[in-house]
Structures are given as structure tokens and as C-alpha cells.
TrEMBL record:
SUPFAM superfamilies for the chain: NAD(P)-binding Rossmann-fold domains (SSF51735)
One matching Pfam family: adh_short_C2
Family indicated by similarity: Belongs to the short-chain dehydrogenases/reductases (SDR) family.
Keywords: NADP, Oxidoreductase
One of the record's GO cellular component terms: cytoplasm
Gene Ontology terms for molecular function: oxidoreductase activity, acting on the CH-OH group of donors, NAD or NADP as acceptor
This protein's name: Short chain dehydrogenase/reductase
Higher taxonomy: Eukaryota, Fungi, Dikarya, Ascomycota, Pezizomycotina
Species of the source: Trichoderma semiorbis
Amino acid sequence: MALFQPFSVSGKTAIITGAGSGINLAFAELLLSRNCNVVFADLELRPEAKDVIAKYQSQASFIRTDVTSWSDLSKMFSFALETYGDFDIVCPGAGVYEPHWSNFWHPPGSSESRDALEQDHYKLLDINLTHPIRATQMAISHWLYPREPAKGSKFNSAPPKVSLSNPKRVVHISSVAGQIPVFRAPLYGASKFGISGFIRCLAQLEPRFGVRVNGVAPGVVRTPLWTEHPEKLMNVDAAQDAWVTPQEVAQAMLQCIEENEYFGGTVLEIGAGHTRKVKVYNDPGPNMDPSGGIITSNSALGDDEVIDWLHEEAIWGAHD
């Protein structure tokens, strides 16, 4: 295996989609505290994200980004280059859960579906799967073949090309739902199985080109994605279920970037107070004790709700 160069986030520039809240905001704040510039790419910023940008205004910047738009993703990369001259870390972290977005158990055309029949695609997969794949592809293109600065830029030359001596990083957010079946959320599970598989497939980029692509697979994380949605919280038993904190996930993401132990293709599972590498072959699977922050105790409530929906002709009676 190639000898990898030490990598520190200090003095680097990161692009983080979904940085306006949750895990991605915690990661952005951690990088900023380590002297890393951060581009916040999101549709909007929660008040706490605005506070972070105000605190680190010389290092942080925001560009409104719809991650389902490839044009917006292109503008995001151009913005980072125009603002900082280069970028070294990409986290295509924006993601949504099912429900509230696409819901396999409310097909397009049913009254509660967020996916219109005429759009011919699922919003959740656009955000959770297509966007991180495309963002990774675009980052690799910029790193392998750097563009000259735009006319009038404050920068005089293209950034240096990626190499083993000038390494770059991509860190994805998968989930334990990419390892275990979640009956109530099959589209979400499919997206996270896909992300974990995508990470594995790009492992050879690091020893060959200096691009490390890896990711984290958190359990149940206390973020607005859960806490502001009662339809999700009903699956949690507050008396015995543990939460993973966004800061725990952010710290693991930093380790994936900086530590040579987590070479390209690594998927690092994050529970409450513990992490482990997920093996490619013969993995024993996550710890299924609710106190570990991996699963929720009341998931049968969500599963039973799905069964009820399947008995409703108004939801499942349409065939086109």
C-alpha cells in the first residue's frame, strides 16, 4: 500500500452541503475551530448556523444551494474557488429521512406523497444518493484538472493538481440503515446502502491519485431531522434509547479525514460513545442494544403504521 502523506485540516478549505443544521453544522463548526475555511452550502441556515458563520466570519461563507440541481452544485464549487482559491475537503452531507420527504409507503399520486407522478423521480433519492455521487464526481474533476481562475479573479493561477503529495478528501454520511433493514424507511435504507457501496468502490483513488473517499454510518442522531418530527420520535423510547450526538459524528468525520488508520473506502459506524470500522466482508453487524444509540425501541409502532397504510385503498389503489 502507498505511504500516505499526513493530512491536517488546518489551513485547508472544505465544502459542506447541508451545513445549515445537524451533523453537517457540527462538522463545519469543528473544522472552523481547527483553522479550516468552510463553505456552507444549503437552501437556508438555521439561526445556530448563522451564529457560527458570524463567529468565524473570516473563515466561513454561505452559498444558497439546491443539492438536487447540478447547476447549483457547479456554482457551489466555483464559489469556493473564487472565494478561497482552492478546496481540499468535500462533504456532500445534505440528507433527508423518510417520511417527511419521499415515502415509499405513500406512492406518487396518493394524497400525502411529496413525489409528483409527473416528476418521474424520488426527491429523497435525488438528495441522499444522486447529489453525493455527483458532487464527488465534480470534486474529482476539479482536483485532477484544475481550472484557471475566472477573469477578474483575485487569484492568478489554477490550484495545484491532486497527487499523493497534495492529497484531497471526500467524507460521506451513510447510516446504520445502510447495514440493517428498516421496514418503515426503505427508500432511506436504499440510499444509505448505496452510499456505503459507493464509498467502497472508490477506495483505490487514494493510493493511485491521493483522493480519499470514506464515510461515517451513524445510528440515531439527535438532530432536527428527528427532534422536530413527531412522526419519527414515536419510534424512540426516551427512557431507554440512547442518542448519538452530532459532535460525536463530526469528530469521527474529522478522524476519517486526518488519520491514516481510516484509509480510502472506510465506513466508520458511530454509536453512542463508540465507533467501529464496518468490514467489507463478514461484518458482525451493529450492536442492536437500544442503549448503544444504533436502534430505537419503539420501531414496531412505525412498522405497524406502514401495515395500516397498506390496507388503505386510497393510498395503494392507484396504479399509475
